[in-house]
């Protein structure tokens, strides 16, 4: 028997997150393992009057391309992908994986070559997203590999995912609207503020947000959501931070990351595990050593680390920074082929002050 929560998630994605309208070209991308969710998302898109196109893939194909491509082939951008990014009205991304470590043996320089070539595509994507010309949402389909990463059974992981997305409730859209309203209070308070200072046992960092609005992540893009975020002034970050959770990207887990910033740029970077990969990514291009994001996780329903950034960056009581590309809608001018989120727990002996006023202490808002 199919899980009714899958159908409810599809309804939330199509009708709340991206609000498909009649005539919209809707591109649905996903792994073959996500087919049950892909199918009902297509169904809901058709009911809403949209025109769905489906692009399916698999992690083993990504591994094959990275392993056997020449440098020229790594730099090639498919005209189909370019058209999708430039012209589709709605993009719904549904990830799943049979092996979350399938890229762990790939030379990081090959991933760097591919990422650098895709910078133009990323720029178009971020610009269209900022202008709302492209509406997008990403989520995952619970599968065995994600459950194993989270150290859960598949049944327990399904409950975790569907609970975090509120589709175990009678009216998940109303629940997400409540999240929006609560977070908007913090966004409104932060409007016009200039200087952020974060202090705690794992961080001593100052940065400017002058002219950079905070945005309300309320389930209209990532699902689940629950954060407020902005893009700091590019040359403003000074200080240091130790990320308390591993940062995972492209099949690699980098543990014990410590970054030091001077005038916005990462001037020192080290890690306890996979430090070489960290340095390679930070050297991907000119913008990779500058911050594209500063954010506060607000989803207190997510309290455990599952090694999946979609959920982990939302953990209530954490902050996260992203090196690389920023958000044009938040005023960012930083461009990069990477946008890599890294998470720091601030639930103990930590505080955030904005223009000298206490915003946040020990994982809780104080306003």
Briefly characterize the structure.
The protein is built from 12 helices and 19 strands.
Domain count: the total is 2
Which segments are poorly predicted (pLDDT under 50) over 5 or more consecutive residues? Answer: none
User: Would you tell me the overall average pLDDT?
Assistant: 94
Strand adjacency order, main sheet: 13-12-9-6-5-17-18-19
Biggest beta sheet summary: 8 strands, antiparallel
Bin the strand percentage: 25-35%
| Strands, count | 19
- Which bin fits the share of residues in helices? 25-40%
Report, as a whole number of angstroms, the end-to-end distance: 47 Å
Count of DSSP H/I helices:
12
| Structural class by sheet pairing and helices | alpha+beta
Shape: globular
Radius of gyration (Å): 20 Å
Question: How would you explain this protein's 3D organization?
Answer:
This protein has 2 domains: 4-169, Thermophilic metalloprotease-like; 173-365, no CATH class. With 367 residues, it is α+β, with helices and mostly antiparallel strands. The N and C termini lie far apart (47 Å). The chain is built from 12 helices and 19 strands. The protein has helices at residues 4-17, 35-47, 59-68, 71-75, 79-87, 108-117, 119-130, 144-149, 154-164, 172-190, 275-282, 309-312, and strands at 25-31, 51-57, 90-95, 135-140, 195-200, 203-208, 215-217, 227-230, 238-242, 247-249, 252-254, 258-262, 265-270, 291-297, 318-324, 339-345, 351-354, 357-361, 364-365.
């Amino acid at each position: 028997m199919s899980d009714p929560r899958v159908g409810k998630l599809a309804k939330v994605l199509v009708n709340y997150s991206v609000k498909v309208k009649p005539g919209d070209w809707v591109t649905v991308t996903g792994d073959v393992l996500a087919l049950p969710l892909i199918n009902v998302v297509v169904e809901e898109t058709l009911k809403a009057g949209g025109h769905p196109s489906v692009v399916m893939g698999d992690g083993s194909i990504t591994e094959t391309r990275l392993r056997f491509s020449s440098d020229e082939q790594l730099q090639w951008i498919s005209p189909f992908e370019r058209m999708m990014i430039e012209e589709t009205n709605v993009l719904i991304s549904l990830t799943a994986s049979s092996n979350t470590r399938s890229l762990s043996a790939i030379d990081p320089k090959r991933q760097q070559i591919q990422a650098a070539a895709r910078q133009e595509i990323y720029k178009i994507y971020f610009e269209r997203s900022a202008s709302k010309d492209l509406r997008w949402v990403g989520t995952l389909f619970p599968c065995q590999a994600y459950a194993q990463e989270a150290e859960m059974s598949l049944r327990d992981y399904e409950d975790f995912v569907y609970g975090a997305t509120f589709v175990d409730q009678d009216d998940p859209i109303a629940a997400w609207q409540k999240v929006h309203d609560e977070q908007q209070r913090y966004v409104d308070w932060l409007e016009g503020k200039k200087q952020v200072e974060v202090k705690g046992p794992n961080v001593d960092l100052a940065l400017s947000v002058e002219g950079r609005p905070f945005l309300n992540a309320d389930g209209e893009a990532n699902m689940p959501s629950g954060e407020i975020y902005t893009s700091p002034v590019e040359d403003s970050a000074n200080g240091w931070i130790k990320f308390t959770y591993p940062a995972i990207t492209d099949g690699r887990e980098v543990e014990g990351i410590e970054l030091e910033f001077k005038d916005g740029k990462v001037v020192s970077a080290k890690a306890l595990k996979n430090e070489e990969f960290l340095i390679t990514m930070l050297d991907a291009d000119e913008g990779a050593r500058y911050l594209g994001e500063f954010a506060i996780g607000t989803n207190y329903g997510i309290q455990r680390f599952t090694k999946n950034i979609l959920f982990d960056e939302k953990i209530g009581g954490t902050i996260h920074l992203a090196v690389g590309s920023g958000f044009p809608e938040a005023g960012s001018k930083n461009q990069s082929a990477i946008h890599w989120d890294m998470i720091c727990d601030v639930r103990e002996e930590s505080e955030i002050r904005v223009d000298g006023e206490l915003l946040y202490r020990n994982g809780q808002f104080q306003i």
